[in-house]
Amino acid sequence: MKVRITKINPDVKIPEYKHIGDAGMDLRNSGAEITLGPGERTLVPTGIKIAVPGGYEAQVRPRSGLAIKKGITVLNTPGTIDSAYRGEVLVVTFNAGREEVTIKKDERIAQLVLNKFEEIEWEECDELDSTVRGSGGFGSTGR
């Protein structure tokens, strides 16, 4: 599938798959070096704008290596980029670790995944069908 992309400045790297079969493409910090203390969050610029096709969303997700090694995650994961949005892709980055972390210019910071979705048409009713689980939630299945 072709998706239109614009680079905000010419030296920005376009996201690409690292391996055949990967679902996510790496997003990079296109701005200046950023230092985040423990518990701090910021918007990391990627330097790209994309035109997500109708019926799809682009999801911004954390990179597992950054999460486990440095405690860096995407705070609103997955972040959704809707098909009508035409602004810069920004990553809501959070330092969940105990140490200060520096994100260098051009460092891989998150992943971008394209996801097809269905639009919902609500059908209001007086009751829902019953199931074995019923209304059991949060911890209802035990350990």
- Strand line-up across the major sheet: 1-4-8-6
Regions with little confidence, pLDDT below 50 for 5+ residues: none
Instruction: Please name the CATH architecture.
Output: Distorted Sandwich
The CATH topology assignment is Deoxyuridine 5'-Triphosphate Nucleotidohydrolase, Chain A
Instruction: Report the structural category.
Output: mainly beta
Helix content: under 10%
Tally of DSSP helical segments: 1
Distance from first to last alpha carbon: 42 Å
Concise structural overview:
The protein is mainly beta. It contains 1 helix and 10 strands.
Give an overview of the whole structure:
The chain is mostly beta strands and 143 residues long. The protein has one domain: Deoxyuridine triphosphatase (dUTPase) (Deoxyuridine 5'-Triphosphate Nucleotidohydrolase, Chain A), CATH 2.70.40. The chain has one helix at 64-70, and strands spanning 4-7, 25-28, 34-36, 41-51, 56-61, 72-74, 79-81, 88-95, 101-103, 108-116. The longest helix is centred in the middle third of the chain and has 7 residues, at 64-70. The chain is globular and about 55 Å long. The mean pLDDT is 95.
